[in-house]
Amino acid sequence: QKEVEQDPGPLSVPEGAIVSLNCTYSNSAFQYFMWYRQYSRKGPELLMYTYSSGNKEDGRFTAQVDKSSKYISLFIRDSQPSDSATYLCAMRGTGGFKTIFGAGTRLFVKA
Amino acid sequence: DTGVSQNPRHKITKRGQNVTFRCDPISEHNRLYWYRQTLGQGPEFLTYFQNEAQLEKSRLLSDRFSAERPKGSFSTLEIQRTEQGDSAMYLCASSLETGTNEKLFFGSGTQLSVL
Fold first, then answer.
1. Are A77 and A67 in contact (CB under 8 A)?
2. E-strand stretches of A1-111
3. Which of A1, A45, B77, B112 shows the greatest Cβ crowding within 10 Å of its Cβ?
C-alpha cells in the first residue's frame, strides 16, 4: 500500500464548476501538506501549503486537512480552462526532508 | 530570481551509455533534491543535499546513479550504463531551509529516453 493515495482521474468539468480533489494517507507522522500543479512537460508548481489540520484559502483555491481521517482536499472555485493540469498532493513529516507525492489527478476544464 | 534551471531538457541515449544532467538551483537555496517521475506517477525522491553534503539517498538509487553538488552550488546527476527502465523525467528542486516551513521549487526537468 502506498503512503499517499490519489485518484488519477481524469476528471472533466465544465468551465465555472467547483472542483474537488482528494488524497488519503497512511502515515500519521505527516504534518505538512501541499498541493502542486503540474502542466504537461513542466515541473510541479507549489499551489497551497498547510500545516496540520484546518483550512487555508488563497483566491479560488481552498485546501482542507483532516488529520483524524488522514484525508486532504483541494477545492477550486469558478474553474477555468487554464486550470487544466495534473494536481499532485504532497506531504512531509516534522523534521523530515523527504516530501512524498501522490500519483496526481488529471483535470480537464472544458470551455 | 530566475528559478531552478535544468539542462538538458531532453536526452535520448542508447542502452549502456552514460548520461549526466545538471541542475542550477535558486541562488540562495541551501537544499537541493533530485526526484524521478514516470508517466502517470508522482515524483519519487532520489537524493538530497544540504549545501555540498549528500545527506540521504533513496533505495531507488542504484549503484549506477551518482549525484554531486560541489561547493554547494549546482548539482549533477549521472547515470552509468543506462537501462530502458531509467527512462523518466528527472526533476530537481531547491529550497531555503527556514526551520519547518520548507517549500520546494522545481525545475522543468530533464526527460530521459533510453532506447
1. no
2. 4-6, 11-14, 19-25, 30-38, 45-51, 54-58, 61-66, 71-76, 85-93, 100-101, 105-110
3. B77
- Residue B37 burial by Cβ neighbours in a 10 Å radius (0-12, 13-18, 19+): buried
Cα B32 to Cα B25: distance, rounded to the nearest angstrom: 7
pLDDT more than 90, % of chain A: 83
**Preceding peptide of A14 cis, ω within 30°:** no
Distance of alpha carbon B113 from alpha carbon B39, whole angstroms: 12
Confidence of residue B48 (pLDDT cuts 50, 70, 90): very high
- Whose grid coordinates read 525545475? B107
Q: Does pLDDT of A96 surpass 90?
A: no
By Cβ distance, the residue of B31, B103, B107 closest to A46 is: B103
Does the bond joining B70 to the residue before it have cis omega, within 30 degrees of 0? no
Contact A101 B44 (CB under 8 A): yes
pLDDT of residue B67: 96
Instruction: Read off the pLDDT of each residue in A5-16 and give the average, rounded to a whole number.
Output: 94
Distance between CA atoms of residues B33 and B90, nearest Å: 10
Query: Looking at beta carbons, which residues of chain A come within 8 Å of B56?
Result: 97-98
A67, A53 in Cβ contact below 8 A? yes
